[in-house]
Amino acid sequence: MPQLIFQNSVQILRAQICVAAALILCASSALVCSSRPAARTATPLADARQLDSAGRTGEAIQILEQSLAAGNDARALATHRYLGYLLLNEGRWRAAAQHSEAALRLAPGDVPAQVNLGYALARLGSRSRAYFHYQQALAVDPQNGRALLFSGQLLEQMGRIEDAERRLRAAARTTPANPEAQYELAAHLIRHRLVSDSSTPGSAGKHNAIAYRDIVRLLRAVLAQNAEFTPALQLLAYAHVQVGSYPDAVRVGERALAAVAGPHPVDAVSAAAIEFNLGLAYLKREQYPEARRRFETIIARYSETARAHCLLGDAFAGTGDWEQALPAYNECQRLRPGTATVRLRQACTAGVREACKLIPEKE
Hints:
This protein is mostly helical. Helix content is about 75%, strand content about 0%. The protein has 19 helices and no strands.
């Protein structure tokens, strides 16, 4: 009996020890859990950023507008600033300007808000005010890539070409990884620095060589990041044509044409411009069937393009087919009198009597 009582006592003691251990374990677990910080509640701004990154910009704008309307947004500056940025991306210039101005009332030196306001005002036609805000941003942050880029674009629109080039070069230098800055500088150089050797004698060759080298370098940097960026391919093909690098123009032009239906499509006019430059490059290389095909494609879409008719005539004349060339020259002359006179003379010299009749008596 004493032995049985002893055994029962031991079992009871063991059970009490197990219960105590379990209680200690639970208590320590509760302590660990209670020491963990509570999960952070997402803010409207964080929600909006997540929605925008998912391509749901409209919903992001709605969330931020509701937050501001409720009047309980502790981060009003950041909300107004980001909302202005989102509205710019949606093309809502006036609303973007209003929220950017609201951000500047809270923080007059805020650089992103200055840049956003400048861009919105520029799109609304207030160029002088837009330039003022870009200058305000650059006074605080002289290396701000967006302010340099947008002010460069604005200066070009204002006719200040040299100032625009300096700003665009600064933007490209400051943000070398930004393909937009490289592209805009290349486009500017093509518009204002690259000239046709045939139309500008003398120093045009040297002038072109400098501009052409910069343009090719810039556009290759863009294409290194996105090989199918159609606008960059289009500009590069045009630059090759302008300096007479026709093999490169054909190679890049074909790439541009293939990319038209890709992830970066261009409008119909730009697609026709790619066809035109490609046709011209083929014509200069004396690949007349390919040239004819390009110019016929353009004429089918834009029948009033006088130069396309002239160059189509040249493609036929290149193979001695004056009978086919004559109607093209005649149409070119009708659309733009005097344009095809030299070609008609050549046809007349080649023995095409109808061409002789079409040469104007007074030029």
